[in-house]
Design brief:
The chain has 207 residues and is an alpha+beta fold. Helix content is 15%, strand content 30%. It is elongated, with a radius of gyration of 35 Å.
Length: 207
């Protein structure tokens, strides 16, 4: 008679591997705080990049005074397109922001009246460009002064829409192109006065 076969039975203990000696410990709870800090830093970096890009493409200026009435009002904030003249040239009727020729620390906002080579004449309450009278529905009132100016190359002749209460090219001369900051595109504050800025296209003046 053959001897009985003896089989060793190994039972599973049901022990969790985490309780076994040498098992990896739980990840520290501080890892969640580290991730939060990284997320905050990433958000701040993205905000800084966006701020730099936006300021490189645009500028925001406050209208001080009444020289552009009735088009723009004192205290309004205007968004300016810095790239407008990187890919194109200013046109008569554009409203631009530029560094004041007599004080570079000041920025002014005026309307372009004359381009390089234009002859500007103000007489009998009318503005003429190369002998052609401008139709100007946007001005506060007709100018009470008179004079004639030749716009030099690389410069613009600018005037405020409030002709009799504006310090502009008729009193201190043309604005050189390198002083131009950009083209005013909209009023964004006060919010209830939000609107796109009208840039009138003048009748073409013969050269």
């Amino acid at each position: 008679m053959n001897d009985p076969i003896v089989v060793d039975v190994v039972e599973e203990t049901g022990m969790d591997s985490q309780n076994e000696p040498g098992a990896a410990p739980d990840a520290p709870k501080s890892s969640g705080l580290v991730q939060l800090i990284l997320d905050v830093l990433e958000t701040l970096l993205l905000s800084i990049v966006m701020f730099v890009v936006i300021n490189g493409l645009s500028a925001r200026v406050r209208v001080d005074g009444f020289s552009m009435n009735p088009t723009l009002q004192d205290g309004e904030y205007v968004l300016v397109n810095r790239l407008a003249y990187k890919f194109g040239a200013p046109q008569r009727g554009d409203i631009i922001v530029f560094h004041f020729p007599l004080d570079e620390s000041q920025d002014l906002i005026k309307r372009v009246i004359g381009l390089p080579g234009d002859v500007i004449r103000v007489q009998n309450g009318m503005v003429l460009v190369n002998g052609e009278k401008l139709n100007e529905p946007y001005i506060a009132e007709a100018p009470l002064y008179a004079g004639e100016w030749l716009v030099p190359e690389g410069s613009l002749f600018v005037m405020g829409d409030n002709r009799n209460d504006s310090s502009d090219s008729h009193s201190w001369g043309p604005v050189t192109m390198e002083r131009i900051i950009g083209k005013a595109i909209l009023v964004y504050w006060p919010f209830n006065e939000w609107n796109m800025i009208n840039h009138y296209e003048f009748v073409k003046a013969s050269q």
